[in-house]
Write a structure and sequence with these properties.
The relative contact order is 0.17. The chain is built from five helices and six strands. The protein is mainly α. The two termini are 21 Å apart. The longest helix is centred in the first third of the chain and has 56 residues, at 46-101. The chain folds into two domains: 10-36 and 246-282; 51-243, f41 fragment of flagellin, N-terminal domain (Up-down Bundle). Strand 3 and strand 4 (157-161) form a beta hairpin. It has a two-stranded antiparallel ribbon with strand order 1-2. Strands 3-4 form a two-stranded antiparallel sheet. The protein has a two-stranded antiparallel ribbon with strand order 5-6.
Length: 283
Amino acid sequence: MGSLSVLYNIPALQAQDELGLTQTALNSTLTALSSGQRINTGADDPAGLAIANGLEANITALTQSVQNATDGVGELQVADGALSQITSLLNSAVALATESANGTISDTQRTALQAEFASITTEIDSIGANTTYNGQAIFGSTPITIYMSDSSSAGVNLVTVTFSAVSSAALGTVNGATVTGVAAAFLSTAAGAQDALSSLNDAIQGIAQLRGDLGADSNQLSSAINVMNVQITNLTGAENGIMAANMGEETSNLSKYSILQQTGIAALQQSNELQQNVLKLFQ
């Protein structure tokens, strides 16, 4: 039979220790339920937290990389739209040159056709010089590099896009000794108009080639965006598997630790009452 003493209440100390452990576990469960996360501090799972933080960095970098590639596609679309307009202008110029080459046209009429043609070349020059994206000229500018990464040195993907200079002088070819580019075409004579047609056709083919090159770059970026979106989905799932709380388990723990807390308080109260037995010795 144990002796009665008032110096130390060992049962109360033991009950207090257990109640403290229960309270810590209950606090952790309540935090997990309120945050939805299994790991809320480094103490919960140091290794898991390190892995999850690394995955989050990957996801953040890939998300921004998708935006980078989307911006690149946007600039390519602006460039393609400008080139499409130039193609329309060149087709209008073809109609003018064909009309001027006809023998039923007078010199006065050819002069008017030449003036209209000159306005077309001016507009082509304006499109080539003034087409911008984000405040920067597109055609003839320094090649741009689209940077994509998952935040690691091994996960870097670079796509370089070159925008050739576009102007009426740069489009077309030397046609005999009279025409150098579309800008030098001369519709005031039937012979000059015939020479201009060859240069205009070459210019149209050149624009088509430029659009094809930009289209290939756009397709490459679109494919990269699709791949990165799949990576983001998979990495997000992996991070969720590490960080997310099991709500069913945490709810069960809440009931468990709530009951243990109540029984612990009752046990502590009972152990303190045991000390009152000492007073009976003085009765």
